[in-house]
Amino acid sequence: METVKIVLKSGKDQPVKRFHPWIFSGAIKKIYGNPADGDIVDVYDNKDTFLGTGHYQPGSIAVRILSFEKVVPDKEFFKSKIASAIEYRRNLGFFSDHSTNAFRLVHAEGDNLPGLIADFYDGLVVLQMHSAGMFRMRNEITQAILELLPSEVRAVYDKSETTVPFKSGIVTVNEFLAGEAGTPVIKENGYRFRVDFAAGQKTGFFLDQRDNRMLLGKYSAGRKVLNLFGYTGGFSVYAMSNAELVHTVDSSGPATDMADENVKLNYGDDERHKSFREDAFGFLEGCRDKYDLIILDPPAFAKHNDVLANALQGYKRLNMKAIENVRRGGVIFTFSCSQVVTRENFRKSVFAAAANTGRKVRILHQLSQPPDHPVNIYHPESEYLKGLVLYVD
C-alpha cells in the first residue's frame, strides 16, 4: 500500500524543519489520498522537499512525526526507537537503582515516539497508546520490549481503553498482551507502594512526582501536612517520615483506601495519618491555620486550549485558598500537570492568587518532571508538569 503524501502550505514548514513533531491541520495545503486515522503519511514542503514520516490523525494535530528521515515504521523501526529510550535510562542508572524499581520507560515525544507511554513497575510494563497509529502497533511494540528486556520484563499490559481517540472508531479493551501480573508493590526511593495498574488513574501511579516527593521530605519535618488531591498517598508516605501529622484528601474512596494501605505498608498502624474522602475545595474552607505544609497536586484542569482560561482561574482560586489558610511560615507545594498551561501562565495564576490574599509569598523552588520523563527540546509542550514551592509569611 502506497504511503499517503501530505504537502504543507508555503511558510508552514518551519516548525517541522526545526524538528517539532506535530503538524497542525491548518498548515496542510494538500492531502494526496484519503488516509484513515493511524495511517502512515509522508510530509513534504511546498517545494516537494521531504520533511518527515508520521501517523495521521483527523483533528487539530493532523500528523505526529515519527522520523525526520525517510523510514518504514515497522517492528524494527520501533524496536530501535525503544532501544534508544532504554539505553538512555540505563545510562541514567534507572535499571541499577536498588531503591527504586518503577519508572517511565517510554515518554512519547520526549523519546521521539509520539502517542506512546510505557511505565515499568518492577517487571510489569503498562502501555498507554494516545493515537490510533500507536495502538495499531501495540503487538510489535510489546514484542520489541520483550526482546530488548528479556530478563527485566515478565508481563506487558495495554491500558489504552480511555486514551485512544474515540473518533478513530477503534474499540479497545484493557488487557495483557504478554504474561500476567498481580497488583505490584513497587519501591521508590526505598518507600513501598501498591500500584493498582488496572483500575487506577493513568497507568496506576504518578511516577512523574518522584523527585518532588523527595524534596517534600526535606520540608515536612515536624509539620502538620495536608495532601490535597492526594490520590494513593505518594506525597503522604514521604511526609510521614518526619511530619507531626499527615492528612490525605481525595474525592475518590478507592484512592483514599489505597493511600491508607500505602501508609500502612511503610509505617504500620500510625495514628499520625488520616485520610478524608472529600472535595478538596470544600475541605480547604475550614482549614485556617490548621496546617503548615499544604500540597496541591490536582488533576489537569485543562486538556485543551478552549478551556485554558477557566483552568487558569481554577488554579488561581485553589492557590488563593491554600495561601489564605496555611499557617504563617508555612510551605505550599503547588502543581499543574496540564500540558496547555505554560510555566509562565501557571506562575502568573499563582502570583494573582498570592496578590489577592495580601500575604508575603516567596518562591523556594521551581519544579518540573524527572529525567525518565524527558522534555524534547524541540517540543516544549512535553514539559507538562510545572510546580512551585512557596514560603508564606
Content-based structural category: alpha/beta
Strand content range = 25-35%
CATH architecture of the largest domain: 3-Layer(aba) Sandwich
Oligomeric state of the chains present here: single chain
CATH topology of the largest domain: Rossmann fold
CATH class of the largest domain: Alpha Beta
Spatial strand sequence of the major β-sheet: 16-15-14-17-18-20-19
Describe the structure.
- The protein is an alpha/beta fold and 393 residues long.
- It is 27% helix and 27% strand.
- The chain has helices at 14-17, 75-91, 132-136, 138-148, 210-219, 234-239, 253-267, 280-285, 308-325, 343-357; strands at 4-8, 22-24, 28-32, 40-44, 50-56, 61-67, 102-107, 116-121, 124-129, 155-158, 175-178, 185-188, 191-194, 224-228, 245-250, 273-277, 293-296, 330-336, 361-367, 386-392.
- A hairpin with a 2-residue loop joins strand 8 (116-121) and strand 9 (124-129).
- Helix 2 packs across helix 4 and helix 9 crosses helix 10 (343-357).
- The longest helix has 18 residues, at 308-325.
- The protein starts with a strand and ends with a strand.
- The model has no long low-confidence stretch (mean pLDDT 96).
Task: Write a short abstract of this structure.
The chain contains ten helices and 20 strands. By secondary structure, it is an alpha/beta fold.
